[in-house]
């Protein structure tokens, strides 16, 4: 009898272990992301990187997919619990990106603004390159001109984490949206102010929060030329400006 009890306990233990293993296998499924945008879920039975991927979908259909049409494969375990405070890292490190940022450009006696949008291609987590356009004004209250920067940029995400620091830098040329202003002095003459664009550059550092939000600080440099001609005062001249501002902003990343 003692041996029979041991044998029954062994069978129960083995059956329980098999049941738990079966439950775990049901909790997880393979997810195949195709280069064309389609997503398939099921169980992969064979994956040859130089040949085909064979899988059975959740509905029971068997599929054979060319491996060169697969973008990536992951395993999704719905019931797996992450440690408290830890988030799943699922950021797409390679592919096209689009980023829109709004930021403040605080100065000594005024507050400027900046709105930029850029698009590009992320080669990997450490290097992406793109081009962008923006609308900016460094001192609206002092009637500084509205400028339109055209730039190229590069960006880098430092860690494979849900919240990760990033750095970005860009350079280009800014166009003045309205170059000439005229002021009439009560019939005595006219003052003419003529702004011209110049090179621009910026550097930013901040955090990507999740897959779609960024917060950053940086430095913004802008070179401008100002030509003035005063008829009543009989003078004219050219002034060169290098605008230097701190940049504080937030953005959306898709």
Condensed summary:
By secondary structure, the protein is mainly beta.
Written overview of the protein:
With 254 residues, this protein is mainly beta. The chain folds into two domains: 29-78, SH3 type barrels (Roll), CATH 2.30.30; 95-253, Porin, CATH 2.40.160. Helix content is 10%, strand content 62%. The chain has one helix and 15 strands, in the order αβββββββββββββββ. The chain has one helix at 2-27; strands spanning 28-34, 39-47, 52-57, 62-66, 70-77, 95-106, 111-124, 127-137, 147-157, 163-176, 180-184, 190-196, 199-209, 213-230, 235-253. Residues 4-26 and 183-189 have low confidence and may be disordered.
Q: Which SSEs are present, and which pair or pack?
A:
Elements: H1 2-27, E1 28-34, E2 39-47, E3 52-57, E4 62-66, E5 70-77, E6 95-106, E7 111-124, E8 127-137, E9 147-157, E10 163-176, E11 180-184, E12 190-196, E13 199-209, E14 213-230, E15 235-253
Antiparallel strand pairs: 1-2, 1-5, 2-3, 3-4, 6-7, 6-15, 7-8, 8-9, 9-10, 10-13, 11-12, 12-14, 13-14, 14-15
């Amino acid at each position: 009898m003692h041996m029979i009890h041991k044998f029954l306990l062994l069978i129960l233990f083995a059956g329980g272990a098999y049941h738990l293993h079966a439950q775990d296998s049901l909790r997880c499924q393979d997810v195949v992301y195709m280069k064309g945008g389609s997503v398939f879920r099921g169980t992969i039975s064979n994956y040859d990187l130089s040949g085909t991927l064979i899988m059975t979908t959740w509905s029971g259909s068997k599929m054979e997919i060319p491996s060169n049409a697969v973008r990536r494969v992951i395993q999704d375990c719905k019931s797996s619990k992450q440690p408290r405070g830890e988030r799943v890292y699922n950021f797409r490190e390679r592919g096209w990106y689009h980023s829109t940022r709004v930021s403040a450009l605080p100065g000594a006696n005024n507050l400027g603004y900046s709105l930029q949008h850029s698009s590009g291609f992320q080669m990997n987590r450490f290097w992406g390159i793109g081009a962008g356009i923006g609308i900016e004004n460094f001192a609206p209250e002092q009637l500084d001109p509205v400028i339109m920067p055209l730039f190229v940029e590069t960006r880098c995400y430092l860690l494979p984490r849900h919240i990760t620091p990033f750095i970005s830098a860009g350079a280009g040329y800014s166009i003045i949206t309205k170059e000439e202003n005229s002021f009439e002095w009560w019939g005595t003459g006219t003052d003419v102010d003529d702004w011209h664009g110049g090179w621009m550059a910026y550097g930013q550092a901040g955090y990507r929060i999740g897959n779609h939000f960024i917060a950053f600080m940086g430095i913004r440099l802008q070179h401008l030329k100002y030509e003035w001609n005063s008829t009543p005062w009989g003078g004219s001249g050219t002034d060169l400006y290098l605008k230097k501002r701190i940049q504080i902003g937030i953005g959306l990343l898709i």
